[in-house]
């Protein structure tokens, strides 16, 4: 399956490929494949040899580890235009997590052997890899900071804001489509389902009403101020 021009443009926005000329990027990804994966399909499992890293073209992918009791701990969730597993490229003990499709989607699968050889030959590509790792680290640090400094309600509100569209002119109200199910959102935010439910209920006084997969935010700027409070 081929990759569209629109998706190529999205790839060029990734820190890993930022600013790369189109012909250079096309040559770099000459060995990559676009593959369709069904819902709940395992992309790779923890401990498997690292053979590819991935870019999400459509759908959602969760990365998780299993506790000894079998409980899933969601480490990260990636959506369209995001890459994952490139940091595992030189891990000799295999992928550190398991990756599973949350819904049907398309992944660009890049072989690590060929890509690793290009890294040794191309300083700009190596710098792009460093930029990608720095961006990922910044994201993890931000998540830890929010867990430590924000209440459960603020963290849920912050999640909704991440997916909120821009309000129409003259109206502070927006409708947010939840990207995946509530239990997975709770896991992603490091909460038990009951804590997540209480947080959603407490957001009603801040103008947030959730009905199924839709969250209606009555006053977007007010909710942004709420997440920023000490």
Description:
This protein has 230 residues and is of the alpha+beta class. It has eight helices and eleven strands. It has a four-stranded antiparallel β-sheet with strand order 1-8-3-6. Helix 3 packs across helix 4 and helix 5 crosses helix 8. It is globular, with a radius of gyration of 19 Å. The chain starts with a helix and ends with a helix.
Short key terms for the protein model shown above:
230 residues, four-stranded antiparallel β-sheet, 38% helix
Q: Can you write the helix and strand succession as a string?
A: HHEEEEEEEEHHHEHHEEH
Q: Strand-residue fraction?
A: 15-25%
Mean pLDDT score: 88
Which structural class fits the helix and strand makeup? alpha+beta
Describe the structure in brief.
With 230 residues, this protein is α+β, with helices and mostly antiparallel strands. Helices cover 38% and strands 23% of the residues. It has helices spanning 5-11, 22-28, 112-121, 123-149, 152-162, 182-188, 193-202, 220-227, and strands at residues 33-37, 42-44, 52-58, 61-66, 72-78, 83-84, 98-101, 105-111, 174-177, 208-211, 214-217.
How does the SSE layout of this entry go?
Elements: H1 5-11, H2 22-28, E1 33-37, E2 42-44, E3 52-58, E4 61-66, E5 72-78, E6 83-84, E7 98-101, E8 105-111, H3 112-121, H4 123-149, H5 152-162, E9 174-177, H6 182-188, H7 193-202, E10 208-211, E11 214-217, H8 220-227
Antiparallel strand pairs: 1-8, 2-7, 3-6, 3-8, 4-5, 4-7, 9-11, 10-11
Helix pairs in contact: 3-4, 5-7, 5-8
């Amino acid at each position: 399956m081929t990759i569209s021009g629109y998706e190529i443009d999205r790839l060029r926005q990734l820190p890993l490929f930022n600013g790369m000329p189109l012909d250079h990027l096309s040559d770099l990804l000459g060995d990559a494949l676009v593959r369709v994966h069904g819902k709940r399909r395992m992309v790779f499992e923890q401990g498997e040899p690292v053979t590819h890293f991935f870019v999400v073209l459509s759908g959602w992918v969760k990365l998780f580890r299993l506790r000894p009791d079998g409980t899933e701990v969601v480490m990260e969730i990636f959506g369209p235009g995001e890459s994952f597993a490139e940091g595992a490229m030189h891990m000799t003990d295999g992928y550190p997590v398991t990756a599973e499709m949350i819904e049907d989607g398309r992944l660009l699968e890049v072989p690590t052997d060929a890509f690793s050889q290009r890294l040794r030959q191309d300083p700009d590509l190596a710098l792009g890899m460093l930029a990608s790792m720095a961006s990922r680290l910044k994201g993890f640090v931000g998540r830890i900071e929010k867990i430590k400094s924000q209440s459960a309600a603020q963290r849920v509100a912050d999640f909704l804001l991440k997916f909120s569209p821009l309000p129409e002119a003259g109206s502070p109200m927006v409708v947010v489509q939840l990207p995946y199910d509530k239990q997975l959102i709770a896991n992603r935010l490091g909460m038990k389902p009951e804590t997540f439910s209480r947080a959603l209920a407490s957001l009603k006084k801040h103008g947030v009403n959730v009905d199924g997969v839709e969250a209606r935010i009555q006053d977007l700027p007010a909710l942004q101020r709420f997440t920023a409070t000490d």
